[in-house]
Automatic annotation (TrEMBL):
CDD domains given in the database record: VOC
Phylogenetic classification of the source organism: Bacteria, Bacillati, Actinomycetota, Actinomycetes, Kitasatosporales
Recorded superkingdom: Bacteria
Pfam family, one: Glyoxalase_6
Originating species: Streptomyces broussonetiae
This protein's name: VOC family protein
Domain VOC: 125-239
InterPro entries named in the record: Glyas_Bleomycin-R_OHBP_Dase, Glyoxalase_6, VOC_core
Residues in the signal sequence: none
Length: 244
């Protein structure tokens, strides 16, 4: 039994405003669900939900996760950048070089994302959301491959990437040096256990792979808080149905 990636969760000062930005940019309609918060559903079985929930801490450092959006042509890249700026994004400088061919932006709450230039072979066939690019060690890439049952599609020079067997967005980790983690991540994964599975057994399996159980919430959602080998928070949701 392996966990399923139920959602990527964005902590936000204004969840509805941030959900609307990503809804308009990605072309997904937001869904209000009492169990799930404000959610953008995936278009097919290669994707995962995006959830937007309240988060009180101000953003002071670069996120450990960001989207890499793909482009079919230079014109397509310019259109995506222009659309993002129109919706409330802004240009930012994270040390990128002009010759790298991608545009770095921040959404209305400062969450970084990139619009990649056309012809990127690594992201070919991955869709508009080509990658969720993460700051992390080789070990954490191995952990998430085992945790989700997603095969490694890149493992070189301590950089790793995994992808669902169904295809779609890649999740990548850039290897060392890994930036210090000063506080709670604004973005984190929510996992579910397949129907009929034993949540406690799955939590034990994740711990055997290198995760740490932090605790469970008292709000009746069955949300078990954990951290991965790099200390990144994630949750195992034991009281919601897995996405079909």
């Amino acid at each position: 039994m392996t966990s399923r990636l139920f959602a990527l969760c964005f902590g936000a000062g204004e969840p509805r405003r941030l959900a609307r930005f990503w809804s308009d940019l990605l072309g997904r309609e937001p869904v209000a669900d009492p169990r799930d918060g404000l959610t953008l559903l995936p278009g097919d079985d290669t994707g995962f939900r995006l959830r937007f929930v309240p988060f009180a801490e101000p953003k002071t450092v670069q996120n450990r996760m960001h989207f890499d959006l793909t482009s079919e042509s230079p014109e397509d890249q310019r259109r995506t950048v222009a659309r993002a700026l129109e919706l409330g994004a802004r240009h930012i400088d994270v040390g990128q070089r002009p010759e790298e061919g991608h545009v770095v932006l921040a959404d209305p709450e400062g969450n970084e994302f990139c619009v990649i230039g056309a012809g990127n072979e690594f992201l070919a066939g991955c869709g508009f959301v080509g990658a969720l690019a993460c700051d992390g060690s080789q070990a954490v890439g191995y952990f998430w491959s085992e945790a989700l049952g997603w095969p490694l599609v890149w493992d070189q020079d301590q950089e790793t990437a995994i992808r669902s067997p169904h295809g779609g967005t890649k999740i990548t980790w850039g290897g060392p040096p890994v930036a210090p983690k000063p506080g709670t991540n604004r973005l984190h994964f929510d996992l579910t256990v397949p129907a009929g599975g034993d949540p406690e057994a799955e939590i034990d399996r994740l711990c055997s792979l290198g995760a740490t159980r932090v605790g469970a919430t008292e709000d009746g959602t069955g949300r078990v808080a954990m951290t991965d080998p790099d200390g990144n928070e994630f949750s195992v949701l034991t009281a919601v149905r897995p996405q079909k």
